[in-house]
Specification:
The chain is built from four helices and no strands.
Length: 144
């Protein structure tokens, strides 16, 4: 095994934490903006996404402090598009989830063959984020 690049790992974990915390805000916002006949299940979906983003941020924060890093107080930048149709919100969500996969893949590149725990954690997170992508794509299929 190779040596863990501690600084790069901590920096990436902080970036991921900022992104996950932004997800809490993003998905909470989306849950409030959904209207229409299918509102209830879609609102519930976004509330679950917000809670999961918070859980992910907390998990990443625990790893950060375990590595003697300092968890960020920032959140990743977010733009308000003022587009709130269900389709627009789902497309923005898909973009967000794709970025999450990219961030976790960057972390995997950094920790692979350097820390079995971090590698397994990161692979699990990639799988989770990929499932989110699949679910959102399936939700978008009904829009033409």
């Amino acid at each position: 095994m190779r040596e863990l690049d501690h600084k790069k790992t901590v920096d990436l974990l902080n970036t991921i934490m900022e992104f996950e915390l932004a997800g809490v805000v993003r998905y909470t916002h989306y849950s409030l903006m959904v209207t229409g006949p299918n509102r209830i299940p879609i609102v519930e979906f976004f509330k679950l996404q917000a809670n999961e983003s918070l859980t992910h941020a907390q998990q990443v924060g625990e790893i950060l402090t375990g590595l003697e890093g300092h968890p960020t107080l920032r959140i990743a930048p977010m733009e308000e598009t003022y587009k709130h149709t269900v389709r627009d919100i789902l497309e923005e969500s898909l973009s967000h989830e794709k970025k999450a996969v990219d961030l976790y893949k960057a972390l995997l590149d950094t920790v692979e063959n350097a820390s079995i725990y971090l590698e397994e954690f990161t692979r699990t997170m990639i799988g989770t984020e990929e499932m989110h992508n699949i679910e959102i794509k399936k939700m978008l299929r009904d829009f033409s």
